[in-house]
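Notes from hallway chat w/ T.B., transcribed later so I don't forget. T.B. wanted the structure written out for a chain they're using in a teaching module, and asked if we could keep both sequence and structure tokens in one place. Agreed to drop them here.
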Amino acid sequence: MKKTVSILLALFMVFGLAIGCSPKEATPSEMTVCVGPYPDTIDPALNSAVDGATYIIHAFSGLVGYRQNASGNLELFADCAKELPTATTTADGKTQYVFELKDDLKWSDGTPLTAADFIYAWNRAASPVTAADYGYMFDVIDGYSEIMAAFEPANEAQSAADDAAAAAEAAVGTADEETTAAAATAAQETADAAYAAAVEAASALSLNVTASEDGKTLTVVLPVDVPYFMELCAFPAYMPVKQSVVDGNESWATAAETYISNGPYKVTEFTQAQLVMEKNENYYNADAIKTDKLVFPFNDDDSSLLANYQSGAYLFIDSVPNDEIETLKTQYPDEFVVTGQLGTYYICFNINDAALSEFTPEEAVKIRTAMSLLIDRNYIVNDIGKVGQVPAAGFVAMGLTEPDGSEYISKNGYNGDGTGYYSVAAEDYSSNCDQAITLLKEVAASSGKFTVSEDNKVVGFPELSYIFNTSTGHQKIAEYLQAVFGTYGFTINVSSQEWGTFLNTRKNGDYSIARNGWLGDYNDPISFLDMWTTNSGNNDTQFGRDANATYAGYSYNGQTGLTWAESYDVIIAAVKASKDPVERFALMHQAENLLMSTGCICPLYYYTDIYMISPSIDGFFASPLGFKYFMYASVTAE
């Protein structure tokens, strides 16, 4: 059975995403394409970046995959599975999917691949021990909640240990220094013991996923069916990994000799300079792979990328110098591509930022909201972006559809009328700034920590920092933000970081304000919302953690005085437990309302994707999720 993804199809039709050329004589040799810098990781369980995902989908195959159909549109297809199964209901009312695997599936080293390999990979990715960013993506599978519950005592003990450590640090140099230090040590020992007990308890638990004795059938049980489960099965985190290679070897995904995979290509070289993949002769559909070698050089220098493309060294680049965009549109009308993308470019504020710690949580919300209102999103898309980005008035991206067929964003905003959480109309920018000044004056009066001058500049406000990863476009936006905030008296120190460092700085909460962006992982708004639950590995803003863990200023379902875990996490759980599409979407709008009310998420625009591709490449396609597909492409003679 074949299932076409409607939203992806629509985006392809609107933006003309399919890349096709008239048939030419193929030369099956090698293709050099650049999709980003050195990746943070290419472990399917640990990766959370689009560039890493592109590498992974060339090396691995899941139960389900994406391909272009004869019309050039994107569709789901049975990859390692023989067909896409239909959901059935179990005797206890749960949902069951039964996948029959293709015959004679093998790893790239020639050994057999079975259903047990999927079970191992999924349980590894879902386990809190692995601490995968996308561990929460497995919460749709029966058994996940029991695994997480086993770690609750350990989480509580660690929270207590963190509090004791903070008290000890505060007591340094006082009469209580020795006592609090001893208490902190004891609390951490208790936390370590609780964690060890949790690991042991969880080892007896697993996701409700089973394999037949012959290893050819995988049965998956879900508490409630979700409309996007087939798309999850096509996502990198759901791809199999080989247990004998992964167990006990944390660096398995950093070396070609241990990067055993099951997809179209196998890794033959992995250095700081490049990733090289060669055709995997053990891939079940190896005959469809036309290019023998893919070379992925690592590069995030926009000028270097363009120079390499213009010289012919790179046949594909995923970024260009921001100042060259207009020229490139004219000079390379058939090679400079602008496509639709299901995502949002935004900046995020660390909710536990020490720079704002002297303000109450309510005052901090007003400060963040004010700073968001000072941003001219139309200037950013028209004068910096220049490739059709749309100013964003909410976090969940445009292009997602409600059960009644209307667009999700047509019902966003606190009033549910599609006006968003602030106006992005060009004519309303001045009034936005007036609202921002009013909010800042309120905080100045209530806190006494700074003042607002007659010319509407803050005086005595703490310095803030803004981080971004290397890119001329990100740098232009950083410079604009620094300037516009500076106009109102804020001092913003901006700095760039290399990709891997940047990802981990954000993840660890070691920042004040950071550039961010999110592309949907599948065709459902929940992909933009469940990432902000307390224990999500993608919760860069640190909601529900550290100081924010005990803040009880949120509300949900008529209840007030709730923590983030008691409000937002509960809404997301309700979304995933609901069998009613209308109810699901109403809950997701409630979740976005609560998310945006914090002021921590500051959307700038809805993404478009730009890249340059040589006319010598046939068969390439991209997805609005950001992935690039070269496995069925070839380089043709001019």
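Follow-up for T.B.: The first strand starts at residue 3 and ends at 4. Might be a good example for the class.
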